[in-house]
Amino acid sequence: MKKMWKRMLLPLVLLLLMIPLSSCGKSVADRDVLAHAKATNTIVWGVKADTRLFGLMNIKTGKIEGFDVDMAKAVTKQILGKKGNAQLVQVTSDTRVPMIKGGNVDAVIATMTITPERQKILDFSDVYFNAGQSLLVKKGSPIKTVKDLKKGTKVIGVQGSNSVDNVKKAAPETTVLQLSDYAQAFTALKSGQGDALTTDNGILYGMSEQDNRYVVTGGTFTKEPYGIAINKGQRPFVKAVNKAIKQLKQNGTYAKLIKKWFGDVPGFSLKEVE
Amino acid sequence: MWSILTNNWNALLSGLGYTLAASILALIGSLIIGTLFALMEISPFKALRIIGRIYVEVVRNIPLLVITLAFYVIVPRFIIKIDGFTAGTIGLLIYTSAFIAETVRAGIEAVPSGQMEGARSIGMSYTQAMRQIIFPQAFKIVIPPLGNQFINLVKNSSVLAFVAGFDLMYQGKLIAATTFSTFDTYLIVGVLYLILTMPLSYLMRYLEKKWVTA
To answer: A160 vs B178: CB contact, 8 Å cut-off?
Structure first.
């Protein structure tokens, strides 16, 4: 028996030795993003590929398309000129922060809400889209607003998104099931794994547009300003992105992109999101 | 690192509990179902052999995630409402049972055929010979590979995270997503899995020493 314990100890010790590793290794994430982007004429963007209207993989062309993607391309062109190259990298709600921190992407434009917690570890651009959290339910569901989420109801959310914390605050008695992406969350709702799906209304409208047996209900119960996320210590790049957003709003490109993606969504107004 | 462990102790502990529960249920279930299909595969009746063969080949050649998602997404829509934990555990059970069936079948077939012939020639029935002569010998042979399957099963239970089954991996993912310290969180999760699998590993080794060499 004694020998057995000794043998079990070794792997554990080896694992514990790995702990100091977690605090080193920063070289790529520390370089000046703006200077590097200008040198290579490329900005690497993290975008979603599972979110209708914002960033969705088009299966026919193999390209990611959506409002976030078009914004990323437009901002790139504003910063680097007409020939500027926007390289798109797919991220999910739970990989987008580590990807910025690790220097895999220069910036993330992926339906990401500006929150104080995130601002502690990341910088954000100015708001480029004002969303709000809402609920998606099956047509005719007894759940009309967030107040109807009582004990025994199940709400589906997505891991790593702040909408989960919001719904826990607004409806503390409901059970929250967290799935890994929006496509899976919507599938789970369709399979009856939950009574409602919660996230930002922009994303929910995209789901409702895809399958009209499901409707967005109850209005918004939070304010979710979307920003472009950039690693800490990249002030010049943040300034350049903010300037680009301002220019896009002034020259009408922004309104054109909003109209392209959200023109058909019922009850959508540009004033609300700008 | 320590703050992650202390702040999320309850979540991690409940995750460990769900992982343990899913693993034990799936282990017992897959051992029973796996042995059943192994017996079908070596049965003297052709129909049973074919059914067993089809089950094993289909199940072991589909990714665990696909099986689990089928139980999470398709079964509740058309047959019966089951939640993520149930779907994950059933998926794990079915998937592992195919591998256990193959392991047990190999073990039974490794017992020299003279054993069965001898048993039958002294008047034992097929079932009697199976139970009293073949099984005790096959059992010793399959212990080491069976241990492999059990350890794989515990690790594979992380599939529950994908269907919101509240297991250790699920909690780990949530903690990583809210604290943003991905590396530390998964390191802790890794150690917790070790705490589950290492004793199992040594138990199997102990059984091997005790029974196989005896």
So the answer is: yes
Residues contacting residue A111 through CB under 8 Å, at least 6 positions apart = A48, A51, A54, A55, A68, A131, A200, A202, A203, A226
CA dihedral A193, A196, A200, A203 (to 10 degrees): 60
CB B164 to CB A101 under 8 A? no
pLDDT tens digit sequence for B89-124: 999 999 999 999 999 999 999 999 999 999 999 999
The ipTM assigned to this model is 0.74
**Which of B4, B80, B151, B187 to probe the A interface (max A CBs under 10 A)?**
B187
Residue B184: closest C-alpha in chain A: A22
Q: Is the pLDDT of residue A29 over 70?
A: no
Predicted confidence band at A271 (pLDDT cuts at 50, 70, 90)?
Answer: low
User: Does B74 contact A at CB distance below 8 Å?
Assistant: yes
Partners of residue B83 in chain A, C-beta under 8 Å: 193
| Per-chain mean pLDDT for chain B | 92
pTM score, two decimals?
A: 0.71
Tell whether B4 lies on the interface with A, counting CB pairs under 8 A. no
Q: State residue A264's pLDDT score.
A: 74
| CATH of the domain spanning B19-168, picked from 3.40.50.1980, 1.10.3720.10, 1.25.40.10, 1.10.10.410 | 1.10.3720.10
Any chain A CB within 8 A of the CB of B3?
A: no
DSSP secondary structure code for residue B161 in this structure: G
B141 in Cβ contact with B105 (< 8 Å): no
- C-alpha A191/C-alpha B164 separation (Å) is 14
